[in-house]
Amino acid sequence: MGSQTQNPNREKEEEQNLKPWCLQDFEIGKPLGKGKFGRVYLARELKSQYKYIVALKVIYREQIEKYSLYHQLKREMEIHINLHHPNIIRLFGWFPDPERVFLILEYAHGGEVYEQLRKIGHFTEKRAATYIASLSQALAYCHEKDVIHRDIKPENLLLDHEGRLKVSDFGWSVQMRSKRHTLCGTLDYLAPEMVENIAHDYAIDNWALGVLCYEFLYGVPPFESESQSGTFRRIMKVDLSFPSTPQVSTEAKNLISQLLVKDSSKRLSLQKIMEHSWIIRNSDPTGICNE
Ligand code: ATP
Ligand code: MG
């Protein structure tokens, strides 16, 4: 019994799915945010019977061509489209028109982790540990596929409707097999080997996890300074101190101290982070913690 003769609708749907996406396939809703090279909108796809809600990221070609970033964008999309993990925003597809490139992304209903952090100042240990565990799992998955994210920071972490952490923004990610020499990322999250511009590898994401864990618990990044050169100096010295308030457990400080280590080969591995007693004791195994 051929299903094709049984279900003409399905045949039509399959044919539709093979067609490349175009702007007419979407109903555009409210703006969700503004990126460096364009905007992100809430959108509903009209092609499938499900009418999925997605986030449509619009990037202006003029902008990316001005900075000769077209190849980087293509690489970002090729890497991203192959990543399928519950803690990574899915890229479902992309399509160009003469002026723009559109990325069809999974919609993160809960917005940015950064916004939550600014709203409440700092997170509970339970919430911080849950996010760090989710992130470690997402990064372990990326590293297995030879992908380094390189731009881990609260602005690039989104939350879904239940509060599950989702890594977004693969603008600086890179697929690699050997150590790289590129200066990239946001200052506060730079690892010493990137400040010195010497070869770096996966361990830069582990350093960023240490910075993030600190910022989650204290509300400010560890090497903050009035000036860029001040931040650089503090990173190079690994000038790390733990304020007395808010009160943070010794176990959490222990994890942070084992990640913010200058010698990248001595930083705690992702596997060891997931096995760390602070993570085991505090993280919620569902990946959801809103307290
Ligand atoms: P880039 O580094 O490529 O220029 P960007 O950081 O400037 O990117 P994005 O982070 O991709 O831009 O998007 C800007 C903002 O739009 C985000 O900070 C977030 O608030 C919102 N946003 C982006 N993607 C999504 C999504 N999938 N779901 C919900 N909101 C999103
Ligand atoms: Mg971003």
Automatic annotation (TrEMBL):
Keyword Kinase: yes
Gene3D superfamilies linked: Phosphorylase Kinase, domain 1, Transferase(Phosphotransferase) domain 1
MF (Gene Ontology): ATP binding; protein serine/threonine kinase activity
Superkingdom of source: Eukaryota
Entries under Pfam families matching the protein: Pkinase
Chain positions recorded as ATP binding sites: K36, K57, E106, Y107, A108, E155, N156, D169
Covalent link location (Glycyl lysine isopeptide (Lys-Gly) (interchain with G-Cter in SUMO2)): K153
Enzyme Commission code: 2.7.11.1
Record bears the keyword Transferase: yes
Keywords annotated in UniProt: ATP-binding, Kinase, Nucleotide-binding, Serine/threonine-protein kinase, Transferase
InterPro entries reported for this sequence: Aur-like, Kinase-like_dom_sf, Prot_kinase_dom, Protein_kinase_ATP_BS, Ser/Thr_kinase_AS
Active site, renumbered: D151
Residue ranges that the Swiss-Prot or TrEMBL entry lists as coiled coil: none
Catalyses which reaction(s): L-seryl-[protein] + ATP = O-phospho-L-seryl-[protein] + ADP + H(+); L-threonyl-[protein] + ATP = O-phospho-L-threonyl-[protein] + ADP + H(+)
Segments forming domain Protein kinase: 26-279
Family: Belongs to the protein kinase superfamily. Ser/Thr protein kinase family. Aurora subfamily.
Name recorded for this polypeptide: Aurora kinase
